[in-house]
Amino acid sequence: MVPITKQNKPRVIEILSKAFDNNGSINYLVKQDKKRKKRIEKLVKYLLFQGEKFGKVVTDEDLNAVLIFTYSDKKKTTLASIIQTVKLALGVVGIENIPKALKREALLKKNHPTHPFVHMWFLGVDPKKQNEGIGDKLLRQAIVYCKDKPIYAETSVTHLLNWYQKLGFEIIKTLDLGYTLYVMKINKSE
Questions:
Q1: How far from 60 is each of 13, 44, 53, CA to CA, in Å?
Q2: Strand, coil or helix: what is 119?
Q3: What is the dihedral of CA 190, 25, 142, 171, to 10 degrees?
Q4: What is the pTM of this model?
Q5: Which residue of 4, 29, 58, 141 has the fewest C-beta atoms within 10 A of its own C-beta?
Q6: C-alpha–C-alpha distance, residues 22 and 127, integer Å
Q7: What is the rounded CA–CA span in Å between residue 103 and residue 155?
Q8: Are 25 and 179 in contact (CB under 8 A)?
Q9: CA 27 – CA 36 distance, rounded (Å)
Q10: What string of pLDDT tens digits covers the 190 residues of the chain?
Q11: Which of 65, 60, 51, 57 is nearest to 18 (CA)?
Q12: Are 190 and 170 in contact (CB under 8 A)?
């Protein structure tokens, strides 16, 4: 688990943009037009901002996988976070999709605890390197790093459910948002 640097940030953006290009959850939020790929890149930049300010953004040693996780008790509303959220709404989601994005966030918040937890927010592996165990190793390292804190995650990728369960996650809720989103957690200290 290696923190990202200013120098490798373009590679991090490339990995996450490619890894989530066909993701149902991402494409639910991103306005679907001829600028979709650029919008996904803008979304990734927003995710990196959130991860750097309120958690961690880490990669594997060879820079083929990226994990963004946040600490719920560190998240704050700041002028910078408001500006980033407005950029997200206008440049990625689109005004017409803001209500469904807000609905999604409200449903997620409802299924997260009120006490501090770690949110394993985004894990992406370079598509050319998927199925080689890189993401598995990175997520396992993060779970150990987070020690006794409860960990939450979501996925819309059904073929990854067994993998998450092998890592100790249990599905606590299934949300129908026009696609299925699985809310999961690892109980460590609850």
A1: 14, 18, 20
A2: strand
A3: 30
A4: 0.91
A5: 141
A6: 11
A7: 17
A8: yes
A9: 9
A10: 999 999 999 999 999 999 999 898 898 889 999 999 999 999 999 999 999 999 999 999 999 999 999 999 999 999 999 999 999 999 999 999 999 899 989 999 999 999 999 999 999 999 999 999 999 999 999 999 998 899 999 999 999 999 999 999 999 999 999 899 999 999 664 4
A11: 65
A12: no
Q: 1-34 as b/e, with b when 16 or more CB fall inside 10 Å? A: beebeeebeebbbbbbbbbbeebbbbbbbbbeee
CA-to-CA dists, residue 167 to 16, 91, 129, 170, 180, angstroms? 22, 35, 20, 9, 21
Q: How many residues does the chain have?
A: 190
The label of the residue with tokens 């979709």 reads 36
Placement of tokens 């990734």 in the chain: 44
Type of residue at 21? D
Classify 126 in phi/psi space as left (phi over 0), alpha (psi -120 to 50) or beta.
beta
Structure-token match 């890592």, residue found: 167
Alpha-carbon gap, residue 137 to 142, rounded angstroms:
9
Helices (H), the chain: 9-19, 24-29, 36-54, 79-88, 98-110, 134-145, 161-166
Distance of CA 46 to the CA centre of its chain: 11
Residue labelled with tokens 């999961």: 184
Give CA angle at 76 (71, 50), nearest 5°: 60
